[in-house]
Every structure is written in structure tokens, then in C-alpha cells.
Write a structure and sequence with these properties.
about 35% helix, Creatine Amidinohydrolase, Chain A, domain 1, 6-stranded mixed β-sheet, 19 helices, alpha+beta, Creatine Amidinohydrolase, 3 domains, about 600 residues
């Protein structure tokens, strides 16, 4: 976790000076420092938090460039305020990652003849092409390094994680690794591909039915793998992570080698002139470079595990349903507690998040949170990726909204749910905005769509009630979710951004429209849903799909304006709450059941 690394502005000048001295020693003018590890994943372990160590920036997306006489950090629109609060702006210029991209900055600031370096393990080919273009425009060059210069001056750098790799039983996986490998190998063979290099730990975890603890919020073991067209796999993993019985669990067609053997294995593929599939959007450029230099025929395509992993089997879906039933009970207990505690005062964001986690931890199958809880009161709720700190922590106050976005990793499923709760009596504007978000949520939940429809084609359904009032939200409407794996997974999503991946039965995706009034409040209603074949569609002329809502937790009826709701919308809302009541009531105590009865009582127009 990022908070394991000591960070302070006072340390930044010394660290920047040390890095520039190291670059000078290597005869380099500059270096690019991204927020990435070798796997290009969402969560970066402490040993790879080089951007945080150098700049003190704690956001989840960014890159810095250090030159002899200036340095800059680039972040996206979520972090334009945060970066100025955390980073010493006398040392680093701050820029928007999209509007003022790093490549353009290099073109303007690099001097003719200067060389800027990058670590090829920490960038994809797309990154490199943009940096190289910027350097060329300035008359400079982009070069690789064999070892990262930040690591040379980061004297107290944490060690890479070393947690045990564990088996993920068929009770939860629903399909053996051998069967998965046979399916994928058949596809490789059909496409004339000899092997696929897997760089995403969650893909490897799914394929081999293993899990781990190397990342704070995703239960994976950091590793690489090569899947061959005969169904065999070579797994590159630190042997200290492999306990007794794991070799037998993996089977004799899965061999294990240390991570530093990956380069030799790639060269062997190249020397044999084999055709090798790799995903250029997620693979480090080092891997593709090694394959091409050694003579492999590199096929750029999607990670072969991504789509089958996204389409959950019947066992996985039932496990996910069970996880949501228990998760809904924990969230209901929290909401019942909050209803009383907030009225009595002195509840703050951090305390609320800790209370919710404690309630989830009471479940025997709970393993960890699926992401850091977003608990935003009042104006903090309007910050989409807010995370409460000692400096920003607010008490929940009457007349304000409290947005809590949270989730958990259970052995049988991953959850992600957002509820917006009125503290005291909400205003008419808050009720209007909440109801418009709810109407969009319901429109998507009730959608039926033909086979072949992508999430991008459905996105407008969730926005229409807001659009009608001249309102909108700037994030996607839905992201894929794994089965006791990553809380954010592809290849599908529901978003304005074009996405051609059709929604298929078994895919789990979030339904989370929102509205955010800067400086005042935020609203988001998020349930997870699963794609399934539509039921009872009379006269249907083509295969038709619909969503099954998985999340089971009350939606604050105090924020709903029934006069804005149609009969169908009120019917969905009341039916949903009846499902919540039936699933949750047997799991909670008498006091919580009484609260739940009121919280899920049918809603009608006055």
C-alpha cells in the first residue's frame, strides 16, 4: 500500500538532486518516472512507487520527467488540485496529462543533442512512441536504461512483495486450470500462434486457479507466464512464494522458473522463429523488444485470458451472488448504525470507513477490501476519487450528503457498491439530482438489448434523465469486475468512450451513474449487475440479453422524489427493496431488521 512509503515535501529537493547526480554520472540529460510497475497494473506495490517517492504525489495516475534544469509532473483531470497540494511546485511544474502531454513538453524543453532515458519495464510501446516523437521534435534522443536510476538513489526502497501463492479451489473457480488451458490453447492453434506471453497477474491467476497477496487490493501473485499452443505453461515466479503442494496443484504441464529466466525463455521463442501473441496495451516494451530482437514473429492482440475470464461460469456467478448477499448484510448493518450515529453527531469520514470495514471483516470468507473506501461528506463527496486523510477528514453534518463507495474481496466473489445517504433532511435540489441519477440507474438496470450490443451503446440510458436537465457526469457508467480478482477488469465497460466489446452472458459490470456539484455534494448509486439471457421476451426475433442486479443493499428512499418517477421506475425500486429485505433480513439482528423494514418500505407518490 502507498502509505507504507514515508513521504514528505522536505525530502523532495534532496531526492531530486540525488537523481540528477545519478543521471549526470550516466551521461543522461533526463529520465521519465511513471507510476507503473513491470505489469502495468492498476495497483502498484510499494517497491515500485517511484513517482510517489520522488514527488510526494499519491494519486493513481501520473508521470514525471526530470531534466537538468527543470522537472514536470503530469496528472489527469482527477488530480489537478491534489497535485498542487502534495508536490513542491518550486521543483516540479504541474501539467494536465491530456491537455499538456509529456511528449509535447519534451518537444519544448529538451535541448538539441540531449538524451532522455526510460526504463523499458515500466512503459508500453504506445508510451514510448509518444515520448520518442517529442524527443525527435526537440532534436534529442530517447534511450533505454539497463537499470533504473531512481532505484540507485532510493536507499530505503522496500523489497518486492513475497506473499505465498495459494490454490483457488474448484468450489469457487468452477473450471479446472487444465480445461481452461485446453480451451485457450485450441484458440491459439486455430490462429496459427505458437505461444502467448501473459503479463497480467490477474490473467495468470484466473488461468492457473491460483491467488496471492502481493497487491493490497487484488488477490494475485506477481508473475509472468508463457502459454503454449499445446496447453502447457511456464510460470515465472519467485520460488519463495511457492509452498508445499503447489506444484501438484498446478500439474505436470505447468513448469516453474524464477522471474529472471523470462528473458531466456523469450529468446528461445525467438530463436525458434515462433509466432508469439502479446497484448501491446498491457505488456512492457522490454518484453516485445526482446521477442523481436531474438527473431520471434510478434502478433499484437488481446490478452487471450481477458474475454473468457470476464464471462463468468455458473459456479463463479453463484459465488458472486452469495458474496453480495453477505456484503449487503454488512452494508445494511453499517447504514443502520450510521442512521443513529450521524444523528447523534461526531461521526467523521475515516471513522465511518473503518466501521464499514469492521462489519465486513466479520464474515469468514472476507479476505481484504477490493479498493480503498471512498467516504466523502458534503463537498468531499463531489471529488470522484476522494480518499479521506487526516488533513481532509470531515464530520458528517446535517443537511449534507454522505457518499460511500466501497467493496470487498471474498473467496467467492468481489463486490463494489456505492450508496449516497442523506444526513438529516435533504434539500429539494439534492432530491431532484438524486432521483435523476436513480432514474438513470434504473433505466440501465431494466435494459434489454440484442446480442452484439456493447456497453458504449447503452451508456446514454444512464445519462438521459440528467441530460434532460442540462446535467451530466464525467466518469464512465460501468466497469467490469472479476471473480475474487480485480475490481476493475476488461475488456468490456459501459462508457461514452467507444468500446466495441459486446456484452456477453456471464459478464459482471457496474451500473454507477452519478452527479457532482463542486464544493457542495456528490451523488452516485452503484450496483453490480451480470449479463444474462433475457427472460420471457414474446416475439423476440434475435437473441436478447438483460441485466441481473447482484448488489443487495438499501437505496436511501429519503432522497427520492416520487413525483419524478414513472410507474415502471417505482415498480423496479420497490421490487428491488423487496429483494434486499428478503435476502438481508435473515442475516441481521432484530434492531437492524426493524431499521431495514423502514428503509425498504414501498415508495409511492403522495
Amino acid at each position: 500500500m502507498t502509505d507504507q512509503i514515508p513521504v514528505s515535501r522536505a525530502a523532495s529537493p534532496a531526492r531530486l538532486i540525488a537523481l540528477r547526480a545519478e543521471l549526470s554520472r550516466r551521461k543522461l540529460a533526463g529520465f521519465i518516472v511513471p507510476l507503473q510497475d513491470e505489469h502495468q497494473g492498476e495497483w502498484v506495490p510499494p517497491y515500485a512507487q517511484r513517482l510517489l517517492w520522488l514527488t510526494a504525489f499519491t494519486g493513481s495516475a501520473g508521470v514525471a520527467i526530470v531534466l537538468p534544469d527543470k522537472a514536470a509532473i503530469f496528472v489527469d483531470g482527477r488530480y489537478t488540485l491534489q497535485v498542487r497540494q502534495q508536490v513542491d511546485t518550486s521543483l516540479f511544474e504541474t501539467h494536465h496529462l491530456i491537455d499538456e502531454p509529456p511528449g509535447a513538453w519534451l518537444a519544448q524543453n529538451l535541448k538539441t543533442g540531449e538524451a532522455v532515458a526510460y526504463d523499458p519495464w515500466l512503459h508500453t510501446l504506445g508510451d514510448i512512441e509518444r515520448f520518442r516523437s517529442g524527443c525527435a521534435k526537440a532534436g534529442g534522443t530517447l534511450v533505454t536504461v539497463d537499470s533504473n536510476p531512481v532505484d540507485a538513489v532510493w536507499t530505503d526502497r522496500p523489497a518486492p512483495p513475497l506473499t505465498p501463492m495459494v490454490r483457488h479451489d474448484l468450489t469457487y473457480a468452477g473450471e479446472s486450470s487444465a480445461d481452461k488451458r485446453a480451451r485457450l490453447a485450441a484458440d491459439l492453434k486455430k490462429d496459427g500462434v505458437d505461444a502467448a506471453v501473459l503479463t497480467q497477474p490477474d490473467s495468470i491467476a484466473w488461468l492457473l486457479n491460483i491467488r496471492g497477496g502481493d497487491l493490497a487490493y487484488t488477490p494475485v501473485t506477481l508473475s509472468f507466464a508463457v502459454l503454449r499452443a499445446d496447453g502447457s505453461v511456464e510460470l515465472f515466479v519467485d520460488p519463495r512464494k511457492v509452498g508445499d503442494g503447489m506444484a501438484a496443484w498446478l500439474g505436470n504441464t505447468v513448469t516453474m522458473s524464477p522471474p529472471d529466466a523470462l528473458g531466456t525463455a523469450l529468446s528461445t521463442l525467438g530463436n525458434a522463429r515462433q509466432k508469439v501473441l502479446i497484448d501491446p496495451l498491457t505488456a512492457a516494451s522490454w518484453i516485445i523488444d526482446r521477442l523481436e530482437r531474438s527473431g520471434a514473429s510478434v502478433v499484437r492482440g488481446n490478452d487471450p485470458c481477458a474475454l473468457p475470464k470476464a464471462c463468468k461460469n455458473a459456479v463463479e456467478l453463484e459465488g458472486i451472488r452469495n458474496a453480495h448477499r453477505r456484503d449487503g448484510a454488512a452494508l445494511t448493518r453499517f447504514m443502520a448504525w450510521l442512521d443513529t450515529a450521524a444523528r447523534n453527531g461526531k461521526v467523521n469520514e475515516v471513522a465511518a470507513a473503518e466501521r464499514l470495514q469492521a462489519m465486513r471483516e466479520q464474515n469468514d470468507l472476507f479476505k481484504r477490501l477490493s479498493f480503498p473506501t471512498i467516504a466523502g461528506s458534503g463537498p468531499n463527496g463531489a471529488i470522484v476519487h476522494y480518499r479521506a486523510t487526516e488533513e481532509t477528514n470531515r464530520e458528517l453534518e446535517g443537511g449534507e450528503l454522505f457518499l460511500v463507495d466501497s467493496g470487498a474481496q471474498y473467496l467467492d466473489g468481489t463486490t463494489d457498491v456505492t450508496r449516497t445517504i442523506a444526513i438529516g433532511t435533504p434539500s429539494a435540489e439534492q432530491r431532484d439530482r438524486f432521483t435523476r441519477v436513480l432514474k438513470g440507474h434504473i433505466a440501465l438496470a431494466m435494459a434489454r438489448f440484442p446480442k452484439g450490443t456493447s456497453g458504449s451503446q447503452l451508456d446514454a440510458l444512464a445519462r438521459m434523465p440528467l441530460w434532460q436537465a442540462g446535467l451530466d457526469f464525467d466518469h464512465g457508467t460501468g466497469h467490469g469486475v472479476g471473480a475474487y480478482l480485480s475490481v476493475h477488469e476488461g475488456p468490456h465497460r459501459i462508457s461514452k468512450m467507444p468500446n466495441r466489446e459486446a456484452l456477453r452472458p456471464g459478464m459482471v459490470v457496474s451500473n454507477e451513474p452519478g452527479y457532482y456539484k463542486t464544493g457542495a455534494y456528490g451523488i452516485r448509486i452503484e450496483n453490480l449487475v451480470a449479463v444474462r439471457e433475457a427472460r420471457s421476451v414474446d416475439g423476440a426475433e434475435r437473441p436478447t440479453f438483460e441485466f441481473e442486479t447482484l448488489t443487495l443493499a438499501p437505496i436511501d428512499r429519503n432522497l427520492v422524489e416520487p413525483s419524478l418517477m414513472s410507474d415502471d421506475e417505482l415498480g423496479w425500486f420497490n421490487d428491488y427493496h423487496a429483494r434486499v429485505r428478503a435476502a438481508v433480513a435473515p442475516q441481521v439482528d432484530a434492531d437492524t431488521r426493524r431499521w431495514l423494514e423502514g428503509a425498504t418500505a414501498p415508495l409511492a407518490r403522495a
